[in-house]
Write a structure and sequence with these properties.
single chain, alpha/beta, Aspartate Aminotransferase, domain 1, 2 domains, seven-stranded mixed sheet, three-stranded antiparallel sheet, 14 helices, about 40% helix, about 15% strand
């Protein structure tokens, strides 16, 4: 067993980058309210503005198009709920637009919000995905109607890592006169994301998915796009999100973005090599395994594998005893015995979903760790399968 935990669950959350930790410690004494006009307030405002410029530059936006929020879930809720605003004069309020289009593999914060909106009378349509988790552009064209106000499609899936063709999707959506939002929480900081090239109206990102702190995220709102606040009260964030700014979290997010701009390109190549080695090792040493997700259009460090005759929860517990941390399905749905909605949406059976684990590697993972995983995992799967009478019966 390794001296330290081998952490391979970076899609759930990431360890804080040492430079991010240092930046937050250095800023901890800046206590002023960024909205105050006095010296302490101006000092805090400078830190917030500097971080906003870093985030904007990283995604190809202008600073006034970036607003800070408490999480990716808050940002997604903000955009989805805006469609129901009935306040006359609100920039988002448009008579007759009462339909949202999203997909069957979105993050729970989008699916649960969509379900809630449907109960309130909003028309919600869900796009199917193929066996690799890709949506069908032709189905998208068919589903969008004259009453569609918003389409929301995640850029990269948190469970299987599949990356959607967001640029093409945005073009189709705009041709039909609707607005387009993408949940890019799993994409920003792992692959290049430039909002002007993608043509999106709204984009969500989160700090703790890119080696920043938890409790801070950002929402890109294209200049000129209609917008309706979810949280009302003060004038913070240009009147778009009330509440005193989380200065320390914002500093951490800004520094995390700065470090991503320096490290992401090299890390992407390294993670692709690690994943290729891991996939090959698993495929060669463990029979009856199925890899889930797109073979090429996929996050560089994400590998989802399903093992026939082995429960995902059991695999996780045995690997944990060996000092390896991975997950099954989405960390946001942990505690549920239901099979992954993402894997079921690809057309795979419930048994396959129950037998899957998600390995998501990051900046701290090494080839030695990958080789250790390849050595340990076969015996774990064999041990679990030996206890499965169903699996042994099928092999007989």
């Amino acid at each position: 067993m390794p001296e330290k935990i081998m952490y391979m669950d970076n899609n759930a959350t990431t360890p804080i980058h040492p430079e991010v930790k240092k930046a937050m410690i250095d800023a901890i004494g800046v206590f002023g309210n960024p909205s105050s006009l006095h010296g302490p307030g101006r000092e805090a405002r400078q830190l917030v503005d500097a971080a906003r410029e870093k985030v904007a530059s990283f995604i190809g936006a202008s600073p006034e198009e970036v607003m800070f929020v408490g999480s990716g879930s808050e940002a997604n809720n903000t955009i989805l709920n805006a469609l129901t605003c009935g306040r006359i004069g609100c920039a988002y309020h448009r008579e007759g637009l009462n339909k949202i289009v999203t997909t069957t593999i979105e993050h729970p914060c989008v699916l649960e919000t969509s379900k809630c909106l449907k109960e309130k009378g909003v028309d919600v349509s869900y796009l199917d995905v193929d066996m690799h988790g890709k949506i069908d552009i032709e189905q998208l064209k068919d589903v969008i109607t004259d009453t569609t106000g918003l389409v929301s499609v995640m850029m990269a899936n948190n469970e299987i890592g599949t990356i959607q063709d967001i640029k093409t999707i945005a073009e189709v959506v705009h041709q039909r006169g609707a607005l387009f939002h993408t949940d890019a929480v799993q994409a920003v900081g792992k692959i290049p994301v430039m909002v002007q090239d993608l043509g999106v109206d709204f984009l969500t990102l989160s700090g703790h998915k890119m080696y920043g702190p938890k409790g801070i995220g950002a929402l890109y709102v294209r200049k000129g796009a209609p917008f309706c606040p979810l949280i009302r009260g003060g004038h913070q964030e240009r009147g778009r999100r009330a509440g005193t700014e989380n200065t320390l979290g914002i500093v951490g997010l800004g520094k995390a973005i700065e470090m991503r701009s320096q490290e992401m390109e090299a890390e992407e190549k390294r993670l692709l090599e690690l994943k290729a080695t891991l996939r090959k090792g698993i495929d060669e040493r463990i029979p009856d395994v199925q890899f889930i997700g797109h073979p090429t259009d996929c996050l560089p460090g994400t590998l989802n594998a399903s093992f026939d005759g082995a429960e995902g929860e059991a695999i996780i517990l045995y690997l944990d005893l060996e000092g390896i941390a991975v997950s099954t399905g989405s960390a946001c749905a942990s505690g549920s015995l239901d099979p992954s909605h993402v894997i079921l949406a690809t057309g795979l059976p419930a048994e396959c979903a129950h037998g899957s684990i998600r390995i998501s590697m990051g900046r701290e993972n090494t080839m030695d760790e990958v080789e250790y995983m390849i050595d340990v995992l076969p015996s774990v799967i064999e041990k679990i399968r030996d206890m499965s009478t169903v699996y042994k019966r099928r092999q007989a």
